[in-house]
Design goal:
This protein has 199 residues and is α+β, with helices and mostly antiparallel strands. It has three domains: 4-63, Nucleic acid-binding proteins (OB fold (Dihydrolipoamide Acetyltransferase, E2P), Beta Barrel), CATH 2.40.50.140; 68-136, 5' to 3' exonuclease, C-terminal subdomain (DNA polymerase, domain 1, Orthogonal Bundle), CATH 1.10.150; 144-198, Helicase, Ruva Protein, domain 3, CATH 1.10.8.10. The protein has ten helices and five strands; from the N terminus they run βββαββααααααααα. The protein has helices at 32-35, 66-76, 83-92, 95-104, 107-111, 118-128, 133-136, 147-158, 163-170, 180-198, and strands at 4-13, 16-21, 24-29, 44-54, 57-63. A five-stranded antiparallel sheet has the order 3-2-1-4-5. A hairpin with a 2-residue loop joins strand 4 (44-54) and strand 5 (57-63). Helix 2 packs across helix 3 (83-92), helix 4 (95-104) crosses helix 6 (118-128) and helix 8 packs across helix 9. The protein is globular. It starts with a strand and ends with a helix.
Length: 199
């Protein structure tokens, strides 16, 4: 599984972009919520990713934040919702905006998203109700402030920390000034200091 990529942005033509990672060009599809935040071509970029494997293709999707990827993955679990509709949702509104629509049962706003008809919108409202961040206890669904924070968050979750713990561990760490590795190191130091203090 490819969890994230860091490389040089070579091409950006919505919904497609290409990242040069050590001489290998990765083609990804991304929602407009990510495209709006992309740097100029030639600049370094980090994205969290999701790989969709099918019999006839392997498609890689890139996201600027962990919150976008988490929503994308949740949308793919909804009946008859594939990557195309999931990208459309993320392109049509923010992560917070979508979850607010689900909370408010706002069918009208969802049907304004290209590719989302009334039946699909009704299915989204029904099946996503139990996948809201608060229902899951998933504090990581809050938007990451940077790609580095999103990557660090994903790594800490993979280490077995709970979402609420990860948010606390990364609180006030500057993902713009710190690299992903530095954020993880600092977060783990915090946990160690707290455990020592509790003894």
């Amino acid at each position: 599984m490819i969890g994230f990529l860091r490389g040089t942005l070579i091409v950006k033509r919505p919904p497609l972009l290409t990242l040069d990672v050590n001489g290998v060009g990765y083609e990804l599809e991304a929602p407009m919520s990510t495209f709006y935040r992309l740097p100029d071509t030639g600049q370094t970029l980090s994205l969290v990713t999701h790989l969709v494997v099918r019999e006839d293709s392997h498609s890689l999707y890139g996201f600027f934040t962990e919150a976008e990827r988490a929503l994308f993955r949740n949308l793919l679990k909804v009946s008859n919702v594939g990557p195309r509709i999931a990208l459309g949702v993320l392109s049509g509104m923010s992560v917070d905006g979508f979850y607010q629509c689900v909370r408010d049962k706002d069918l009208v706003s969802l049907t304004k998203i290209p590719g989302v008809g009334r039946k699909t919108a009704e299915r989204l409202l029904l099946e996503m109700a139990d996948r809201l961040p608060e229902a899951l206890g998933d504090a990581v669904a809050l938007p990451a402030r940077s790609a580095a924070e999103g990557e660090a968050s994903g790594a800490l979750l993979a280490l077995g920390y709970k979402p609420g713990e990860v948010v606390k561990m990364l609180k006030d760490l500057d993902g713009v000034q710190l690299s992903t590795e530095e954020m993880i190191r600092e977060a783990l130091k915090r946990v160690h200091r707290e455990r020592v203090a509790d003894r």
